[in-house]
Specification:
Blueprint (H helix, E strand, L loop, with lengths): L5 H12 L8 H9 L4 E2 L2 E2 L4 H15 L6 H15 L2 E3 L3 H12 L6 H8 L3 E3 L14
Antiparallel strand pairs: 1-2, 3-4
Helix pairs in contact: 1-4, 2-3, 3-4, 3-6, 4-5
């Protein structure tokens, strides 16, 4: 399983959201990208890829590490996280918007609920997994 780093998340934010992307709390971003790899009693807290993706989206969208654009960053990190792990998000713009807004507004508030909503929107990709583009120096 490939997990994103905070530096990669910042790079993705700056590349997709533009140079005006402002970080409010880098610690919250670090926590969001670390959450999918969390363990409890030596076992993965989120054992499946879809649960890890749900945890990442939940933390990114709800923690508000950025001044603005947390929902957009959550979607971008979701797409990259799934992609580097050999899975694709197959959602229309409307489906992706509705999903992210449901997480942001608390309609989907627990990781199992987020994972259940996400599962029908993803499928395995045939391309090999690889790390995202290296983070550029800040």
């Amino acid at each position: 399983m490939i997990h994103l780093t905070a530096d990669e998340a910042l790079h993705i934010a700056r590349r997709t959201l533009g140079p005006g992307c402002a970080v409010r709390d880098v610690g919250l971003l670090e926590a969001a990208v670390a959450r999918p790899a969390a363990s409890v009693g030596g076992s993965d807290a989120y054992p499946t890829l879809v649960e890890k993706a749900a945890a990442l989206v939940h933390s990114t969208v709800r923690n508000h590490a950025l001044v603005d654009d947390n929902k957009r960053l959550g979607l971008m990190l979701l797409v990259v996280f799934l992609g580097v792990n050999g899975t694709r998000l197959h959602a229309s713009n409307d489906q992706a918007y509705d999903f992210i807004v449901a997480v942001a507004e608390g309609e989907l508030d627990a990781v199992p609920d987020i994972a259940a909503a996400l599962a029908p929107l993803i499928s395995a990709d045939r391309t090999p997994a690889r790390r995202p583009v290296s983070a550029a120096p800040h």
